[in-house]
Amino acid sequence: MFKVGFGYDSHRFDEKRKLILGGIEITDKFGLAGHSDADVLLHALIDALLGSVGSGDIGSHFPDNKPEYKNISSLELLKDVVDKIEAKKYVINNCDLVVVSEIPKLEPFRKKIVNSISSNLGIKADRINFKATTNEKMGFVGRREGMTAYAVVSVLEERLWEFFNWLDREGSNYDVSQRYNDSRPNNN
Ligand SMILES: [Zn+2]
């Protein structure tokens, strides 16, 4: 089985906190309000991962009224979710991530964020795409009240993942359509 998941999150700015995105400290001049470290990017990613395997959402797994999650690094929550995906015998194939905010400029942090997520998901960096955009001064993001993040992930059942890896090893000469057409009746 091949599945996709989608996640969205938003947090209000809080000038007394540090800004953490993808597990990386971006600045200590301002951050985001929240029960945990308020890593809006990881929260969107976690929701997408949970969604892909039909496991609900971040709020049901890590309630924001529980003291054990107060100021917790969202990398710890992510680790827990990666374990859940593995327990369900799925492999994370790729993810596409977007942060929408007027400030700060995130392009200089793109590589760091991708590498952090790559090592925490245990997948190659080229399977992670990170984008940052503004909201063209419109709405609450445009008024610099907070930031939002979106994430899409795809996951593959472990045995399907192994099958694709095997196909890769066989090389481009291997015609998989031929193999499956062979077994059909009335095949010319
Ligand atoms: Zn959040």
Topology, please?
Elements: E1 2-14, E2 19-21, E3 24-27, E4 31-32, H1 40-52, H2 58-61, H3 74-87, E5 90-100, H4 110-121, E6 128-133, H5 139-142, E7 146-157, H6 158-170, H7 176-182
Parallel strand pairs: 5-6
Antiparallel strand pairs: 1-4, 1-7, 2-3, 5-7
Helix pairs in contact: 1-3
Keywords:
single chain; 188 residues; alpha+beta; 60s Ribosomal Protein L30, Chain: A; 5-stranded mixed β-sheet; 7 helices; 7 strands; 36% helix; 27% strand; globular; binds zinc ion
Widest sheet, order of strands: 4-1-7-5-6
Q: Helix tally?
A: 7
End-to-end distance: 29 Å
Encode the helix/strand succession as letters: EEEEHHHEHEHEHH
Low-confidence stretches: none
* Helicity, as a percent range: 25-40%
CATH superfamily: 2-C-methyl-D-erythritol 2,4-cyclodiphosphate synthase
Describe it for me?
This protein is of the alpha+beta class. The protein has one domain (2-182): 2-Layer Sandwich (60s Ribosomal Protein L30, Chain: A), CATH 3.30.1330. The chain is 36% helix and 27% strand. It is built from seven helices and seven strands. It has helices at residues 40-52, 58-61, 74-87, 110-121, 139-142, 158-170, 176-182, and strands spanning 2-14, 19-21, 24-27, 31-32, 90-100, 128-133, 146-157. A five-stranded mixed beta sheet has the order 4-1-7-5-6. Helix 1 packs parallel to helix 3. The structure holds zinc ion. Residues 9, 11, 34, 40, 43 line the site of zinc ion.
